[in-house]
Amino acid sequence: MRAFSCSRCGALVNFDDGSCLTCGSTLGYIEGVDRMRALEENGTVTWDRALYVPCANAELSCNWLVESSTGEIHCPACRLIRKRPHPADEVATDQLAKAMHAERRLFAQLRENGLPLVSYEDRAGGIAFDLLSSTTGPNVTIGHANGVVTIDLSEVGDAYRVRLREKLGEPYRTMLGHFRHEIGHYYWQELVFSDDVLLDDCRRLFGDDRTDYRAELERHYKEGAPDDWSESFISEYATMHPWEDFAETWAHYLHITGTMQTAAAFSMQLGGLVGDKLDPILQGSLRSAPGYSATAYRDSDIDSILDAWHPLARAFNQINRSMGKADLYPFVIAVPVREKLAFVHEVVRRAGREQ
Fold first, then answer.
1. Bridge-partner residues for 250, per DSSP?
2. I need a labelling partner for 84 at 20 to 30 A (CA). Which of 67, 92, 103, 228 fits?
3. pLDDT tens track for 140-153
């Protein structure tokens, strides 16, 4: 995520902020030009001779703007939401507002990588998000099917999500992680399955996706992951089936590149300790946008990305430990996982070039 500033006072603001804490201006994000603008008193803003108004989901904390001449009332990210709780369900609606932060962050990252974002309204099998809550309604199963990503809004609650994380033996579980994982299934379907060459390479690395999914699911929850899973997989869940291995790897690629972009936006320095001295090979700054933004990854090989990520992840883990928290990135990237990440990187790069 890039760093943003208030267009009125220049203060640093967050991607999700609806107002500037320094000058009090109401803020709006213009998707596609990556600008956070301070609205005028009439609640609009003009950019590049176009008039922008707040998204109709502003009451749900959506801070994105819509170009008024398009006739749309919802921003591009909100238009992908197909199902949502009834407005009278106050608990689920509050959960929805929090989950939408993650959905917009995902949308922005996919857009910046140049990945195709076709809506279910424009084509059968296009992207649709069903955001429903098992807290106040029937049980919701998180998953993907034919472009539809279903998310259980109950997981915005820390206690609920942590309880599931501990029950399933997961070191990491977030709402944004769910979105990134499930959209990985969609892009496997859209970008890999439709390309014979990519599909063959994918099956060589991840395994044969034609393996019975339900049987593998039952095996996984009965037997668990093999003891040596970390030698070939990014997570225990990735061992369940080639589809899940791809989706987990895809999500981690977005975790890594998104975090590196944020570090670059704040001009963070990299360094690696060798004994009691800094390794000169690892010293230096991550280039800031547009240099080391998500779009620049298309021109970098995966080894360069991961060589920069390694000391950065270790630093973040140490910072978290200093705050008394668990590691930010509690994963080990083994050589086979690097190869899988390289494959995902090539899929993303190819899609970005085509777009």
1. none
2. 67
3. 999 999 999 999 99
